């Protein structure tokens, strides 16, 4: 399993941002091996964190190559006051089972 964490600070979002964001989200959900996502906001720092999960790197690579994603990357300074992307292989996850989460599919 792989995760892509997109951490960013917001500037001003416009119609182009919302259109691209929707296209990217729709494509991600249809990409190979997409498992789910979660989002967090840190009110102290103003950072937003979106974490996406895939069974393999194939789906993540499909998303990274999508034209809407490429366009958003090129224009990120219009909407973001900084960003960081973290790609990770998820080796293990555990919990008590009471929270539905994409990593619940992992075998311990």
The succession of helices and strands, N to C, reads EHEEHHHE
* CATH C-level name: Alpha Beta
Q: What is the CATH fold-level name? A: Alpha-Beta Plaits
Percent helix among the residues?
25-40%
Shape: globular
Q: Approximately what portion of the residues adopt beta-strand conformation? A: 25-35%
Poorly predicted runs are none
Structural class: alpha+beta
How far the N terminus sits from the C terminus, by CA atoms, comes to 12 Å
Give the helix tally: 4
Supply Rg.
Answer: 15 Å
What is the strand arrangement across the widest sheet?
Answer: 2-3-1-4
Describe the structure.
The chain has helices spanning 15-30, 57-65, 67-74, 76-79; strands at residues 2-10, 34-42, 47-54, 80-89. With 108 residues, the protein is α+β, with helices and mostly antiparallel strands. The protein has one domain (2-91): Alpha-Beta Plaits, CATH 3.30.70. It has a 4-stranded antiparallel beta sheet with strand order 2-3-1-4. Helix 1 (15-30) runs antiparallel to helix 3. The longest helix is centred in the first third of the chain and has 16 residues, at 15-30.
